[in-house]
């Protein structure tokens, strides 16, 4: 009887070892995955996702679940509302002006490729948000329209441009927030006066960049807030120089797009590989698709970037006062 029990024990132990080995091997045999929340434009038909995501998947074998979560503000809000139940591993497209809204949701990552980034463009010393491209805010105009164009921010508020331009709401869009920061830095204590006048003068105030730029290209207004690099897209993909950027003597605001790893992610290794990919292999595709500047300044850009003028005066003094300025903006403009 003891012998029978011993044989049974050996068999049971053997089966347990085989089962344990199978469990330990299962993760290696399963498809590795990564869930990324990004803004709608990145995920759209003409967005960078169409080239960046397949290239990352091919290089790493990691399957990306890409979720279009709205504008950059909505990306942050979605992760916050989902809380501990979120499946998001990486958020993408958060700008420096929105960074303070996202910091508490993110883990830092000291990527070895941060050294390729111009230190002037690193706005988070804890590397919770890591830059991957940048742009410069500007008003873009349709040169086919016979209209004397503004030569300064102040000109925009004159009667000559009544219903001729489109603004974007600072509360719902990183571009709107960027415009707010631009006016604050360029105009000082007169920035709210500018918004009061500009709001009355504008054709409309869109909720996001896609809606605003869509109205602009449809001919609803000949001027829209966008980027100095916006004409690059039209040159590269439409072979036209019809749309051009206005450069103002007051200077222009720099905006930086960044990605971050969500706290508590179960796919930390995959998330780090994705960040590293954004800073290396994806740089040219990101610049071309987003019509932005690559964060790695050593890359050679297409000739179309000759149509992206570089202002002499740039604002790159990043701080965390955007939320307070939005409250002031609401009090002055909405209430």
CATH class of the largest domain: Alpha Beta
Low-confidence stretches: 1-20, 22-26
Per CATH, the architecture of the largest domain is 3-Layer(aba) Sandwich
Overall 3D form: globular
Task: Give average pLDDT, whole number.
Answer: 89
Biggest β-sheet: count, sense, barrel? Answer: 12 strands, mixed
Instruction: Bin the strand percentage.
Output: 15-25%
- Total strand count, please? 12
Q: What level of helicity do the residues show?
A: 40-55%
> So what's the oligomer here?
single chain
Give me the strand/helix succession: HEHHEHEHEEHEHHEHEHEEHHEEH
Per DSSP, the total helix count is 13
CATH topology-level name of the largest domain: D-Maltodextrin-Binding Protein, domain 2
Structural domain count: 2
User: What's the CATH H-level homologous superfamily of the largest domain?
Assistant: Periplasmic binding protein-like II
Radius of gyration: 24 Å
Describe what you observe in this structure.
By secondary structure, the chain is α/β, with parallel strands linked by helices. It has helices spanning 2-29, 40-43, 49-60, 72-82, 99-102, 153-156, 174-187, 191-201, 209-217, 230-238, 268-279, 283-290, 322-334; strands spanning 33-38, 63-68, 90-95, 106-107, 130-142, 165-168, 204-206, 223-227, 243-245, 252-262, 293-294, 314-315. Strands 1, 2, 3, 4, 5, 6, 7, 8, 9, 10, 11 and 12 form a twelve-stranded mixed beta sheet that branches. The longest helix has 28 residues, at 2-29. The protein is globular, with a radius of gyration of 24 Å. The N and C termini lie far apart (88 Å).
């Amino acid at each position: 009887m003891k012998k029978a029990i011993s044989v049974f024990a050996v068999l049971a132990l053997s089966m347990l070892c085989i089962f344990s080995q199978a469990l330990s091997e299962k993760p290696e045999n399963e498809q590795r995955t990564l869930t990324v929340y990004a803004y709608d434009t990145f995920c759209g038909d003409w967005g960078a996702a169409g080239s960046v995501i397949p290239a990352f998947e091919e290089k790493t074998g990691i399957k990306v679940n890409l979720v279009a979560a709205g504008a950059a503000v909505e990306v942050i809000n979605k992760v916050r509302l989902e809380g501990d139940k979120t499946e998001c591993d990486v958020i993408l497209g958060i700008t420096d002006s929105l960074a303070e809204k996202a910091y508490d949701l993110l883990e830092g990552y000291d990527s070895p490729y941060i050294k390729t980034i111009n230190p002037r463009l690193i706005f988070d010393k804890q590397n919770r948000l890591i830059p991957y491209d940048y742009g410069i805010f500007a008003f873009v105009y349709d040169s086919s329209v016979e209209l004397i164009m503004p030569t300064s921010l102040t000109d925009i508020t004159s009667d000559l441009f009544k219903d001729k331009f489109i603004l974007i709401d600072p509360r719902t869009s990183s571009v709107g927030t960027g415009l707010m920061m631009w006016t604050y830095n360029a105009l000082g204590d007169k920035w709210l006066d500018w918004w009061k006048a500009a709001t009355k003068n504008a054709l409309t105030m869109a909720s996001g960049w896609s809606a605003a730029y869509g109205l602009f290209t449809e001919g609803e207004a000949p001027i829209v807030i966008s980027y100095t690099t916006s004409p690059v897209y039209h040159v590269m993909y439409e072979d036209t120089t019809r749309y051009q950027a206005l450069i103002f003597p007051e200077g222009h605001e720099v905006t930086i797009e960044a990605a971050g790893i969500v706290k508590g992610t179960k796919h930390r290794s995959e998330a780090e590989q994705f960040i590293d990919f954004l800073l290396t292999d994806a740089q040219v595709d990101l610049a071309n698709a987003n019509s932005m500047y690559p964060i790695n300044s050593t890359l050679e850009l297409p000739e179309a970037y000759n149509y992206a003028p570089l202002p002499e005066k740039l604002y790159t003094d990043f701080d965390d006062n955007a939320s307070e300025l939005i409250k002031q903006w609401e009090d002055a403009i909405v209430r």
